[in-house]
Each structure stands twice: as structure tokens, then as C-alpha cells.
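Task: fold both queries, return C-alpha cells.
Query 1:
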Amino acid sequence: MRYINGGIGSFELIRSRMMCEAALAARIKAATHVLLAIDFDGTLAPIVDNPDKASLEPRTAQVLRALTLQDNVSVALVSGRKVSDLKRRIGLDLVYAGNHGLEISGMGLSFRHPRAEALRNSVSAICTRLGHQLRSIPGVLIENKVLTGTVHFRNAPPGSLRLLHETIRCAMLPYHRVLRLRLAKKAWEIYPRVRWNKGSAARLLLRRFLPRLPLAICIGDDETDEDMFKALPDAITIRVGPAKRSCAQYFVNGQAEVHAVLELILALASPLSEALERNTELGGVNALNQGIQNHRLGVSL
């Protein structure tokens, strides 16, 4: 896996097989509709020490709002956070797929996975148990999200991590038939044992457009987002930040470059993009790039 560092006001995308900038732009422009499925923490918003402090930068909120106003774009926030948490932070009219897709609100959907709902008491019980067992380790935060749970250890002392991991695994043993663990970025995610993930949620959203499917664009930074990338092989898939391996077609370095991707999508989906290409205002082949504030899409061939 290779990465290119983007300069200020630019971003770089790299694909594992040959595809030029014009071809990528053509895919977006040729689509009758675009479904943007995007993660929150580490993708739209930077990861922070206290997850309750996470928020969008104003310029990211602005371009996200502009995307929701496009008739040919649907935006779905696909996150590990609860739907209620996401709505409070974003406050826009879009689709919210929370708890890694186990609950969805928007696009005519009010969905909660029935098996996950049935196991919510087990999630609550393990969160309470871990809260007691890990209280001696400073910097650990237990988050009960009703359908899932998270043990955040970003602020825990490095010397305590072995004890923390062993404590979590032992505490989970009585629940191994109904719950499972998955390691995330400085966190353990606790899931109900159901055959459902972010990829399942993204496929459900796509089916809402039948018989004519939109172009899906999936962007995320964590292992749970790989479920989206695997589930939608025909989508444009973008991984944020370094990863040892990924199913994504493209890679960007951070929130600044995610912002540039969103601006590119907006520029290509907006009716103004046709005017720009006809040279009516900015002129020449550079019109589109100037129209998205000189952000550059680079592809390594």
C-alpha cells in the first residue's frame, strides 16, 4: 500500500489498479444519482481524546449541508455512534445509520435490527460489568450505546493495556454466544452476534433506489468501514489514513483531504459543473478545479 502526502489545499487518491482522474470524474458526472455513505469519527470529524467533544469543522459542515441540498445526491452518515447522538451533532436532513448500521433513520426508514434489539440487555450488562472491573485503570471510558458498546482506552496508560485487554476478554466469556468483540482505533467495540454491519446497512439503503441503483461513494477510516467497502464492490471506496490492508480503491490522508473529496463530489454533482466545463465563467480545462477551490485530484498510475 502506498500513500502520497497532499499539500495544502490539495488531496491525493491512489488506486490499486489503473484509473485516471478523468475516468473517476466521469463516473460521478455520469451517475443519475449519488449515494454518499460516510463515517463520522476519523472521517468527517477528527478523532479526539474525549468522544463527546467530537465535532465538524464549520467548512465541513457547510459542504455537507450543500450536498444534502442537491437533488441528485443522498447523504448517509454511517457511524458507530447512536443515531440520536449523530442527529444532535449534525442536525441536517440526511440518513443516519448508527451503531454500525444496526439502526437507521431517514429515507423513509425507521429501522432497528430485531436481534440486536433483543440483545440490548446483554450489552447493558457487559458495559456495567466492565465499568466495575476497569474502574481502577485511569483514562478508560465505557460507552453503552444501547445496541452496541465501546470501551475507549485512548487515554489509558500504556502500561495498563495488557491488563485492560485481558480483563475485557475474560469479562466477555459468559456472553460469547450472544456478543462479540472487535478491535477499533484505541477502542474495543462490543457487538451483538448478528449477521449485520455497515455493509449490510449500505446495501439496504441502495435497495431503496431500485430499479435504478445510484453510484455509491463510501468513505471511512476504520476496520468497520471495510465492511462497506467489501459489500459494495462497484462503489467508489475511499479509506482515510494509513492501514496495513484495505479493500478500498482509494486512500486519503485526513479530514482536510476528505473535505476536498466532498467538494469535488459537490462540484461534479452540482448543475454549476456543466457551466464551468462550458467555459462560461472560468474558462478552459481548469474550470472545474478552480470551481472547487483549486483542490487537486491526483492518481498514481
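Query 1 returned. Query 2:
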Amino acid sequence: MNFLRRNTMIFVMWKRLRSMQDRHFFLRTRQPFFLFGRLYNTSEFNVLNLNSIMASNELIKGTLQTIILKVLHDHGRMYGYEITQKVKDLTNNEIRLSEGSLYPHLHRMEAEGILTTETVHIGKRVRKYYRITVTGISVVDEKIRDFTDFIRIMQNVLQLNPVPNS
């Protein structure tokens, strides 16, 4: 089984497991599962790959507000789906924001006064645009400064050389 297909299946399978208890049960029992029209054994998959998927999702969750604010700061007024597509494009399809993670952040930032909304009627559809407020601009600067400091600290702790832009 090639590497890309195997990891895609791992990701789909892992996402289908609702809770951490389900995931731990899955890893302990090594039960076969049915996916993409074929019966698979869990021994065919590397547990480390499952854990790295989890870690990357946790990293994204921790930086989601910074990502959203930076995209809105750079591109102005945007609606939710447009934000998800812009993040997907900027990260070469590495980060895909789901509506379930995006909209709670947008609503919370709107309630905090970081974002403002504008509702536009397009035919029979209603589109809600988000824009950064003056207060939000200072929050963006603070978040980017904090994240830059965090990257610098992690590079020191992990003894990594800065990765050049490609």
C-alpha cells in the first residue's frame, strides 16, 4: 500500500473515531475495520502516524485565532468559506479549516469586539462578511509577536535551525 493512500486512510479512520476513549480502544483492540471497500487490520497502520496527525491538529487548534486574524488583516473583508479557502491556498493544502472549528472562533472574536460583521444578501442567499476592528488590529499585532517569540523559543529548546522559506 503506498504511503499517501495509507496515511489518507489513517486520517479518515482516525477522524471517524469520535472520542479519545474510542481511539484508545481502537489502538488497544487491534480490531479489523472496513474502509474504502476493503477490510483492513489495524496492524497495517503505524500508531506513530496516528499520533502525529493528532499533534498537528492540536497545534492548529492552538494557533487558529492567529491564523484567522492574520488572513483577515491581510485580505480585508471575507466570509467564512472564503477564509477556509484562503488558508488552504496559503498553506498549500496543509491546513484545512472545518466550519466546526472556524465559526465558533469567528463568533467569539465578534463578541469580544475583535471582528465586526456585515450581512449581504446575494439573490436568495445571505452572506456574512467578517472584518477586523481597530481593536482587532492591535490583537493581530500582539498575536503575531507572541507567536514569533514562541517559534524562537521552540527553536532554541529543540535546537532547530530556522527553516528558510521555499
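Both queries returned. Flag for query 2: Confidence is low (pLDDT under 50) at residues 1-8, 44-55.
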